[in-house]
Amino acid sequence: MNDIDIARSIRIKPIADVANSFGINDDELISYGPYKAKVKLDILQRLADKPDGKYILVTAMTPTPLGEGKTVNSIGLSLGLNKLGKKSIVNLRQPSMGPIFGIKGGAAGGGYSQVLPLEDVNLGLTGDIHSVSIAHNLCSAFIDNSILRRNPHNLNTNAISFKRVVDLNDRALRDIVVGLGGKSNGITRQTGFIIAVASELMAILALAEDIFDLRKRLGRMIVGYNMDGEAVTADDLNVAGAMTVLLRETILPNLLQTSENTAAFIHTGPFANIAHGNSSIVADRIALKLADFVVTEAGFGADMGAEKFFNIKCRTSGLKPAAALLVATVRAMKHHSGMFPKYSYNDSKSGLFKENTKAVSAGASNLIKQIQNVKAHGVPVVVVFNRFENDTDNELKLAKKIALDAGAERAVIGEAFQGGGEGMTEAAQAIIDVSENDNNFKYLYEIDEKITRKVEILATKLYGAKEVVFLPEATRIIRKLEKLDLDKMPICIAKTQYSLSDDSALLGAPSDYKFVVRDIEVSAGAGFITVIAGDMNLMPGLPRTPGGEQIDIDENGDPKGLF
Questions:
Q1: Who's near 175: CB < 8 A, 6+ residues apart?
Q2: 380 vs 55, 198, 407, 546, CA distance in Å?
Q3: The pTM is what?
Q4: Domain 128-246 belongs to what topology?
Q5: What is the pLDDT of residues 495-504, one digit of tens each?
């Protein structure tokens, strides 16, 4: 059966029953129908004296474009922990409409490790991304209105950094002109769109501690600069209050259930290749009070979402991870060998799906480097090999040895897709064992270091670069941020997710290359500096054959082709 058939075969419990079984009271829920609800932040006051559970991060080796099953294994690990008698909650990001109608399809797990209701998770859920988009675009409207109304803040129309957003892949909106048609339609200026999940508002929502912290952060957002080079903020435009009102329920985490009727929080959705790539701090805080183990997923490979989890999210929250589960596949190891034609993973008859231990060994460098990247933060690593039907025992045996030799505390086989919680009990037990001891968790750099130094640490220590090259525009912006005292923040690097480097064609663990920084953006509300490397942009485009071409409704009026 495919994902949607499996999902529809499972008996879903009323969300209030799931909530009660994990210690959430009825009056702490805002219901969105029978199977999903928001949880009020007041619950944290009631549970303030309760100790936190263990905080477990799920990350991965550098994936192929099809993904290696990180979400499936995140859900499966939580299910496995519950199978072993540990109360566990899984915390995930909300899927963006861009990938759903673009290349990846649904993003709520798969097989027997899913979050339900499957259609709701992937098609808007409780409207959070829509609310973020409206609040963001309200600020954009205020910017243009302020310029039209005699420009009291003396905004330089060539130095407005705040673009509009939409939650779709639409490359035609990357670079546009607004205000055409005369003064009644506003001031003509060049601008553009970014995808909603890359917006600073989404990043802020994921990092905010409560509604009041959200309000402060929104007010600090820099929308542009005046003619004297000084920053103009959302508070200067008097729009941050209205934005907060639009997000008053959006900040409340969404509670759903897994395919085994355990609790799952799905809240916020920042991308990891162009944002910080982690779900919300408030969802984690609530879950940690309710469960023995909280499993949370960071986007893409350990060089992307995991690094930002450690150095941005944990630095903001003060929370400390107990262990990390790193998802790997034989398929990805072979891919990183460079021995197979590009896109051969789409062809089930290609050599990628035949036993080839030589290719597994040749592509091991990426897995080894990603294990080292997690351990560089002092966090113990369990590697789980997400088993596919074409994997052979010889390949898996070799892959496990490679992981252990690279420093992983444990290396196990996972069958979350086929077996749900039962297929992940070995991984769950490994996480229980590894998380019993204190670790030496640390940040990779100090906040007060120069922007250039922080980027160099990330590029050389995690990405394997020989040196970092800052193009003239990036250098100019760095000097500007230093002058405005906006440089003492964590770094959020936007780069390709398909390579450790800034070039998607460089597989394995490249070294002796130059990491090129072409642009810098400051997210003063979120509290980090976005460093844009290579040809990365903040508005993805659709592939040659968009996934949306396969999506329709069936004879019953239900979605089909989504999963």
A1: 190, 192
A2: 12, 30, 9, 39
A3: 0.94
A4: Domain 2, N(10)-formyltetrahydrofolate synthetase (3.30.1510)
A5: 999 999 999 9
